[in-house]
Specification:
This protein is an alpha+beta fold. The protein contains 17 helices and 16 strands. It folds into 3 domains: 138 residues, 3-Layer(aba) Sandwich (D-Maltodextrin-Binding Protein, domain 2), CATH 3.40.190; 123 residues, Dipeptide-binding Protein, domain 1 (Alpha-Beta Complex), CATH 3.90.76; 236 residues, Roll (Dipeptide-binding Protein, domain 3), CATH 3.10.105.10. The chain has a 10-stranded mixed sheet with strand order 8-9-10-1-11-16-12-15-13-14, with helices on both faces. Helix 15 packs antiparallel against helix 16 and helix 16 packs antiparallel against helix 17. The protein is globular and about 70 Å long. The N and C termini lie far apart (53 Å).
Amino acid sequence: MKHRGLILGGLFSILLTFIFLIPPASAAQKGTLVVALDSLGGQNMDPILEGRASHAHFQAPMYDSLVGFNFEKGGIGPGVAERWELAKDGLSWTFFIRKGQKWHNGDPLTAHDVKFSLERTMSKESVASRSAALRRNVKNIEVIDDHTVRVNTNGVQVHFPASMSRAVFQEGQMMPKKYIEKVGAAEFRKNPIGSGPWKFVKSVPGDRVEYEAVDYPHWRGKPNFKRMVILLVPEESTRVAMVRTGEAAIASISPEAIKEVEAAKLKMISVPATMQAVYYLWGTYRPDQKDNPVADIRVRQALSMAIDRQQIIDHVMNGKASWPMPFATFGYSVDTDTERWREWTRKAFRYDPKRAKELLTEAGYPNGFDLKFANTALPGTPYMVQIGLTVADFWSKIGVNIKYKHYEWGAFRALRRGQKELKGAASMYRTAGRPIAVARYTSGFMSKSLSHLFGNTKKGMNLCDELCQSFDKLSLEVIQARDPDVRAERTNRMIEMVANSWVAVPIIEGMGYWAINPKIVGAFNPIPGRHEFGDVFERMPRADQKAWR
């Protein structure tokens, strides 16, 4: 009997050990996460061949970036590199690569892959959105050892690490050196491998991309679903219906679908601070526009005061938007006094039609004036058209005679390049949520930038007054300031200069909108400021793991 008890006791201990070693069913990877999107961009799986924001949906699951996210606050955080340091002379950045990372074929990810990836992104073959900027900014790249890489820059580039994160751009995505050199670029594009938490399975152009979860721990998170399918479903009502029936677990939606989603008792995720809907006033600095009413700063300020932003938030956006801060400024913005700007905005962006009419009278336009208005919506934000219509209606109420014209985004982009039809006109525009404001300011206001809202020195033009020259000088100081206190002071001056000009005026701060089937996907948090879920899919629990409250 004594031996029998010892045997039974031993068997019981083995059984307990076996139970605790095997994870519970709820923790095992199982099921398929189906995601319905309105756009898959170019659906190119090679990072250097995709320059549109959609890459953050379908490339992000399988590719890691050199710099990652701050998942709680938004903005940048550790990625493939655990940390990074700026040299004392400001002319190089050293990135320290986390150990133990591997590609989907089992090869280790090293500093050699980092150098290869950045150089491939900088190549002339690359169409990545900021490949040209990388070529200008990077002098050369050195591998110090397997886990250390140094990027030598042309001049001081204090925000270089941010440009290596999908929180800002896509150019920091990592690609496997050994694999690509072995199979060639053509084969890599057919059968790509990455180092992310999802492995590529298949891409059907214009239809879907399929993935399989890695079955080992990953620094971004080990997926809870076994497989994932991202579907292209352009029609919004179809996407919502798919989530309602369980054919899809998640779908991107617009504010127009919010009521339908709530009526279906689905969950809705609102990702905060993903964009600002703004309006631009084009060419106000041009001599041939000196008699245009919008060349007068009082008129420009009156146009802002005529807009009831809260009404747009409540009725156009169904309450799923918020009051904006100045242009390209968000709660997670770095080098910025966000509390100052939040307080400033409440007064500066107030709805005051009486004062607006007084300003028009002071400027010599008591009976209003004619204003050309180009309404458009960037891809993924169709509600901008309705915002634009509402803004035009508010302006008409203070006597402005709106000469309205709607443009598809492709047509408007072409219009923006030459700006001949836009000079002296207003238009809708959008700025995406990014932690570094200066990139948006330089592309919008510097005299050699695409939009050059303060002046134009491109192609031999010499239209750059004192404001324009001051901004050009200040923006370069922001980019090169190594002292964070100096950089913050310069950044706030830059924001102030633009805010007080009233040529690029935020209307609302928008969100990203998603419908969720709570019977399939459990409760999760998005990354503030990042509408796309490519870096969130692996963090999503199944419904049996974490129920929604």
